[in-house]
Amino acid sequence: MNVRRRSSAAALAAIAVIGAAAAPAVAADPSPSTSSSAPSGKSGGTDGLYGSADPQYDGVWRQSLALLAQDTAGVIPSSSAVKWLTDQQCDNGAFAPFRADPAKACDAKTMVDTNSTAAAVQALWAVGGHGDAVEEALGWLKSVQNADGGWGYTPGSPSEANSTSVVIGALAATETDPGTVKKGGKSPYDALLAAALPCAGDGGAFGYPDQDGKPVANADATAAGVLGALGKGLVAEAGEKTADATCTASDEPTREQAAANGAAYLAGALAKDGHLTSALGGSAEQPDYGNTADAVVALAAQGGKDKAAKPLAWLEKNAAKWAGESGPAAYAQLILAAHATGTDPRDFGGTDLVAALNATGPAPQGVSAEDSATASDEDGKDQKDQNDQQEDGDSGFGVWWFVGVCLVFGIGIGFLLSGRTKKQQP
């Protein structure tokens, strides 16, 4: 759904150009992080990268989410942004979270992973024109599939719901039936269903391995597992409206039932406050905006946009500050949540998420033909509105106030990723 915010094209262009130039760099965070500040484009392999915080742990993931989010909003990304991503690929098709020197060949010490690779596949497929890179990445993913049909974060690590689901998303996005990709007779769906926990005690959640390798109910793994079980990727549309999800016990649940059980678990976790929580380093629990956005996508995909109404409303009311401080990946997660629910990402609780995301990196080439046509209609309405305002004595200050506000969103301080990139738990 590509609905443009009712603001002039000139204002949006100014935001993209001025925001990219004016937003200051921030100090690198030693933790997995991202920033809404525009990259310097001068050193360290960051030319074309969205955000300026240290990309060591999340560069490819961050860039992939940004490109996917732009695509859902009808934005044609900068060629330098796409090139940054393709340059990160190793000769064997895999991606690492970040390679500071893409000209240097990958070797045994290059920490490639399934999550970065599968996310990059989805992004490159969406922007088009990179079939060879996509095929090589898919070939690598298939080569490191585990005997149970799934994937862990790194090649050879035990399969888990998060990584298996993001690879399912890559397969599905590229029109490959995940059920046909097998190792030892097992498909990714077999591995994913093995991570689905029973209704009794765990409420139908998908588990993530604890320190002893035992799967424990986990909201992030559940949001991922719901999408994976439905055969959907990081970008998902609202599914058919269903009754409120309930957990149905079964010794051998179908993919659809496992997804419904997972949705029931998420709905229960969101029922009280409308958001998920997390606690880092023993600190007090706090709202988890990123996982809440992922839960919105999962709930909408499983049972229609109405199922995600409460957490979506909470995000619209509370998430703008978090995204402004957190950067490209955060803006992208909110845009994907908006897309899944048919919500306008250019007016998300009063925030233009698309303009804010665009301002964190190289200016986009433009908008798609469909979105451009919509923009022309909206610009015509904008002109009428401006004429009406002038007749009433309005000076037109509001447009440039809007530009200034969106520039503020281009300044960030970095954050710890709450998404799948950090799922290398001890």
TrEMBL record:
Keywords: Membrane, Repeat, Signal, Transmembrane, Transmembrane helix
Bilayer-spanning residue ranges: 397-417
Signal sequence range: 1-27
Low complexity biased stretches: 24-41
Every Prenyltransferase alpha-alpha toroid domain range: 64-175
Ranges where the record places region Disordered: 24-49, 359-393
Protein name, UniProt field: Prenyltransferase/squalene oxidase repeat-containing protein
